Each structure stands twice: as structure tokens, then as C-alpha cells.
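pls ignore typos typing on phone
adenosine-5'-triphosphate + seq
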Amino acid sequence: MSEERSLNFLEEIIEEDLSNGKHGGRILTRFPPEPNGYLHIGHAKSICLNFGIARKYNGKTNLRFDDTNPSTEDVEYVDSIREDIKWLGFEWEKELYSSDYFDKLYDFAMSLIRMGLAYVDDSTAEEIAAAKGSPTEPGRPTPYRSRSIEENIALFEEMKSGKYPDGAKVLRAKIDLASPNMHLRDPLMYRIKHAHHHRTGDKWCIYPMYDFAHGQSDAIEEITHSICTLEFVPHRPLYEWFIEHLNLFPSRQYEFARLNINYTVMSKRKLLQLVNEKYVTGWDDPRMPTISGLRRRGYTPLSIRNFAERIGVAKRENLIDLSLLEFCIREDLNKTAWRRMVVMDPVKLIISNYPEGQIELMEGENNPEVEGGEGSRTIPFSSELWIERDDFMEEPAKKYFRLGPGLMVRLKHAYIIQCERFVKDETGKISEIYCTYIPESRSGSDTSGINVKGTIHWVSAAGAKTAEIRLYDRLFRVEDPSNEEGDFKEYINPDSLSVISSAIIEPDLINAEQGRGYQFIRKGYFTLDVDSSPEKPVFNRTVTLKDAWAREVKKG
Ligand code: ATP
Ligand code: MG
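k done
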């Protein structure tokens, strides 16, 4: 696919840089997650872009944990991020941490102070905000802006040594209080925070701000193309100002549009609320848009990479339809999933002319989409079966090609049967369906000459096993919950999970493997959940066979 499409704007920039011999033809990108949550599908987009573009141009990609905010970061997140990137199929050149640069960043700050380009400000956050002005009104200097270089050096050293409490002072760059770009109105470089850091421990009580850490970290690593999302466009002049005044490697920043998907939220802060307030069972709840949630749900790395490729690289924010992600996983699973039979809402079917107690072993290819079928499994057949309740109609409608009194249907991998009669229980519910089978119609050696329109799935009642099945729907009932009035959590879809506690599975599914996709024929794609035990398998529905929702909507 990548060969056929035209270049995206980042590839155009890179090809031009390569043809000009910039950086000696070297391409080095980075993926810079803040370890304050699990990665989501938006990050996957960024990962595919950063690693993908480097791979395409024989470059490399660093993984840099942007860990400058000690209070929200945790090693649990670091581990999950590593795992998710590897699972997506990418390898990083170096694993780095912004916190590794704390000493260097401190020295950079001192250099700017010595150049008269940074000062310690004792104003409160409110005072600083008030003095900053507005986009239409220039800012004013605080009384501390005119401090001498010597005083600034002494104060900054004292800030570092722990003399002052949180918030007492900040270090600011001395740039331009009248700049039309608010980010250049003497931005903060350092704040005081007496907090334990997951890597540097208690060594530091001052921490650099994003804007003072990110560009310098890029430059230290000699990143050639620093790709980030559009909200950083107004930060770019500051990114360049620090690099220029510190005379560092000229990393350049390029921006693309964040990925947003409808019927979900895509911010770690909001996802964390869903986890902490128990709206979901964890970061890897299969309804979450996290990479770990998608993995548990049964998404494959290839489907996510294809999705990232299909949405392309945009320069304008938009909302991508969830159905595109679902299309990508169906496309992959259709080629790879193993076919199995599962009855979710069972009704008993009895074949009156089949010898009672006899068991016949039918064959079913694992994967009819590939040559050779990836082997096959045996499926026991007997006189008592379970079929799906909605595969039978007491008074069949027109064009209903399943079972009903007098109707014929094929049992997948087995025989053609004809319905003779049915029995209802005291509540009026159909409890047994009686059929006869046509012995010459066995699949693979059918000499009956009978053509039937419908094929249904079934499971033999003798030796049947059961499993729990979890059916998922979209997590929110509105397209863009973050843009609605009130709290986004008010818009959670109350029916995002429904559980079938004992579906009837064909015996081979007891051997289901974690990480493999299964198509429960006529039902959808499923995968084994981590909650499974040998006694009780649990399956997650990854996606339905077709877009049930789109059809609902069409119906009105
Ligand atoms: P969030 O807002 O979800 O918490 P973030 O931007 O704070 O995300 P970071 O850990 O800072 O998360 O992001 C790491 C990288 O992933 C950044 O380069 C960021 O631009 C990119 N990224 C984050 N969210 C998206 C998204 N929705 N689409 C594309 N890239 C994203
Ligand atoms: Mg961030």
C-alpha cells in the first residue's frame, strides 16, 4: 500500500532534506511519551509515523521518556509503553529519558542566565499570568525582570539546593513581553517541586518545563526531524529560540494533526478517570482506545499499522470514524482467523433418523482463506445438537433461508436436514426442534442432488463445552464526548458490555490460544481473554462480521 500512495508532507520534507544532503543524509526521529498513562491509538499513530518514516528512509528512532513531571509519572507506565511499541512491531535505536539530561539542562539554564537571557522571578503564578497581557495587549515586566546576572546565578543555585518551597520562585527566559506569540513572553523554564522522581529520586527539587526540556533533548540526541502534534505549532519559535541561543544541534520541529476517533476519548487524563473511577476494569479494558485494550480486544498489530497508514498524515484536525478501525481489523482477521462454531442462544435440535448415541467426526478447515486451510480440526456430530434460536422460525417469513416447519437447511461441515416438527415448553418457548437428515448429503461427499440456500452452524450436545462471551459496543453514546456539555462521563454508553455467561462452543475451542483470532462463523471475530481458566474459557468479541450499527442507522 505504501508504495502506491503519494508522499505525505513529512516524506516530502525528508526527501528534500536527503536530496540536499542535510545532516549527511542521516534521519533520526524520536517518539517522546510522557510516562503518565498507557498509550492509546493516537499514540499508535505517532509511533507508526515516527518509526515508519525512519524505517522508510533508512533512519532510526529513539524512544525517549519525557519524564520531567515527577508527580504523575510511574514505572508501570514505562513498562507498558515499551511493551506496546514492541507489540506494534517497532524497535527503537536508544531508550532515553529526559531526566538523564537534568544536569545538562541545568547547565544550559545557567548559560542563558550568564548571557542575561534568563531570570529568577518571585512572582506568584497569578501575578505572572496577569503581567503577561493578552494577545491584543502587551505584557509588562515584573519587578524581578531587571535582576542582575550575579543575583540570578545565586538565586537559581539556591533554588536547586532546596532553599525555597514549591512555587516560591521560577526561572524564566528573557525574550519579548510584547511578542504576538504568548509563548515568547518570558516563558517559564524551571519550577520548584519537592517531589520524588521515579528515576532521579530526590536529587532534584527543580524541574524543567516541557518547552525547556523537549527541544534541548532533541538537540542533545541530534534528532533530525522532531515530529509532534499541531498544538505545538505556537511553541515552535520558542523551540528554535532555545536551540539558537544555546548554539545546539539544529533539530527541527514538524507538526501533524492529532488523531481523534468518534465515540471515544483520547486523552490520558480522561482515560485515567475512567480507570480510577471504575467505569472500566483497567487501562486494558477491551473497550478502551488504549493499545493494551485493543490488544486484549483482539486487534492485531498489522490492523493498527494499516489503520495508521490509511488515515494518512493530515495538517488539520478531524474526527476519524471508528468504523475505519473496525474495517482494518476485519480485513486482517478475515485472512487469519480460525473458523469455529459457537451457539450463543441455544435451542435443542434432534435428528430423529440419526442413530442415537452414534458420534461421527466431521472435518473443518481452520482457515478456508488460505491454501491448505492451516490444517483442520474434527467436529463431533450426533443426533442431538444445539443451534441458534434465531435460526428457526415457527412461521418462516419470505426469503428466510434457515429452519422452519418443512424447510431444509445445511448444517455446516455436516448434512442437509429437514424440519419435521417442534415442541414448546409450558411458557410457549420453543424447546425442541425435530428434523430428519439426508444421509447422502454429507459435506465433501454430497450425492443427494439437493440444493439448499441456507447453511447454519451448530454444536453437538454430547460433550458440549461452554464459555463466557463478552460482547462490546462503543464506549460512548455520542460521537465526541469531550465536546458535549457537562462531564464527558455522562455520555458513557450503558450497554458497552453485555455478557453471555454460557455460550456453547465446539470442543476444539477448549484449546484456543491467547493472541489468536477466531471467527465464530456467522457471529463475528473473537479472541481468548486473559480472564480465562481451563474450566471456563472467556472470549472477547473483537468486532462483528459486518457493521451492525451502520445497518441499524440505515433502517432508521
Ligand atoms: P494525551 O493528551 O492523550 O495525554 P499527550 O500528547 O500528552 O497525550 P504524550 O505522552 O506527551 O501524550 O505523547 C507522546 C507523543 O504522542 C507526542 O509526540 C504526541 O504529540 C503524540 N500523540 C499524543 N496523542 C496523539 C494523538 N491523538 N494523535 C497523534 N499523536 C498523538
Ligand atoms: Mg503530553
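The two ends are 36 Å apart (CA to CA). Residues 268-338+467-555 form a domain with the Ribosomal Protein L25; Chain P fold (CATH 2.40.240.10). more later
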